[in-house]
Specification:
This protein has about 325 residues and is α/β, with parallel strands linked by helices. The chain has helices spanning about 40, 75-80, 100-105, 120-130, 145-150, 175-190, 215-225, 240-245, 260-270, 285-290, 310-315, and strands at about 15-20, 45-50, 55-60, 65, 70, 85-90, 115-120, 135-140, 155, 165-170, 195, 200-205, 210, 230, 255-260, 275-280, 300. About 30% of the residues lie in helices and about 20% in strands.
């Protein structure tokens, strides 16, 4: 069950934070010579001064990048589990399903049950079942979403005359033929609606590169049909948050959202009244933060994911950046 406090909650969360060198807060977490942070970056790093009952983690750019765990991710998750904290992993990326994500995390050294993972394969399938169970859909997507739709009994077709809903998704097999089918279903037959799994413009990959994501597919369809995407089931939409918190007895104010993207991870947290934790290991840079108005600013900014633990716990565990 989703906590009732999700509805109409404000941003007054009583968040307490500690700052790194360069800030005026008296609670300063010591920075070693090996931190690798410039002075301007160090002054922007703010870490929580308390633990929360639950943590929601983005994966791409937060827990791992490509096929490697990011520094500190393994020991952080292990320590949170040792302390009995509830953990969920979320992703806007529909090119894997929860089983595949669980297998990947386990392979990287973080054994993870499938029940701890929610992504847009799950949210899109559930949204269709709840709102359009009899619709005929045309998924512009890769195999995991298509497989999930089939298993859920949702009818699919590439015949524009019978398509009710076009699903735009992160699809590395996207070709002109798919765009034509979507165009015909929406513009020519004037019947189909456009929905999408996620709004991300690109997915970060190793080496500082990226791959065009679902926003590119949405833009192509919108440009040629003149219509707008009606529903997006990924972050920052509440659809994703409701799916993630389902069955958890935790208030949003006591559940931290941790991610690397301002427009999805942080936006979802701020809108829901959750502690918003940004990590600088993915898309967002310090320069991006400088341009933010206060209402869009994350509560905490971490240079590495294990800074999520307060400084007194670092000292208790004897952690350092090199240990």
């Amino acid at each position: 069950m989703v906590p009732a406090a999700l509805m109409g909650i404000t941003r007054d969360r009583g968040v307490r934070k500690e700052t790194f060198v360069g800030a005026s807060d008296s609670s300063v977490m010591p920075m070693g010579e090996d931190s690798g942070l410039q002075a301007t970056e160090a002054s922007s790093i703010t870490v929580p001064s308390r633990l929360y009952d639950a943590y929601i983690f983005d994966m791409d750019g937060t827990i791992y990048l490509g096929d490697e765990l990011l520094p500190g991710a393994k020991r952080l998750i292990e320590e949170l589990r040792t302390r009995g904290k509830t953990i969920r992993f979320v992703s806007n990326n529909p090119t894997k399903d929860p089983v595949m994500y669980a297998e990947k995390l386990t392979r990287l050294g973080l054994p993870t049950p499938v029940k701890e993972i929610v992504n847009t394969v799950i949210t899109m399938t559930r949204w269709l079942q709840a709102n359009h169970p009899d619709a005929v859909v045309f998924p512009i997507s890769e195999a995991p979403l298509i497989r999930a739709l089939a298993e859920a009994g949702i009818r699919m077709s590439n015949n524009p005359a019978e398509i009710d809903i076009v699903i735009a998704s992160y699809d590395r097999t996207f070709v002109y033929e798919k765009l034509q089918i979507a165009f015909d279903a929406i513009w020519f037959h004037k019947h189909a609606r456009l929905v999408a799994t996620n709004p991300d413009p690109f997915c970060p990959i190793a080496g500082g590169r990226g791959e065009p994501d679902a926003a590119a597919i949405i833009a192509a369809i919108e440009a040629c049909t003149g219509i707008k995407c009606e529903t997006i089931t990924g972050k920052p939409d509440p659809i994703m948050l409701h799916a993630t918190l389902e069955g958890l007895d935790v208030e949003p104010s006591n559940c931290a959202m941790v991610g690397d993207r301002l427009s999805t991870d942080i936006r979802m947290a701020l809108d829901a009244g959750m502690p918003a934790v940004l990590v600088l290991t993915g898309e967002t840079t310090i320069d991006d933060l400088k341009r933010l108005p206060p209402r869009d600013t994350p509560d905490f900014v971490l240079d590495r994911i294990d800074r999520l633990l307060p400084s007194d716990i670092w000292k208790e565990l004897g952690w350092s950046e090199q240990s």
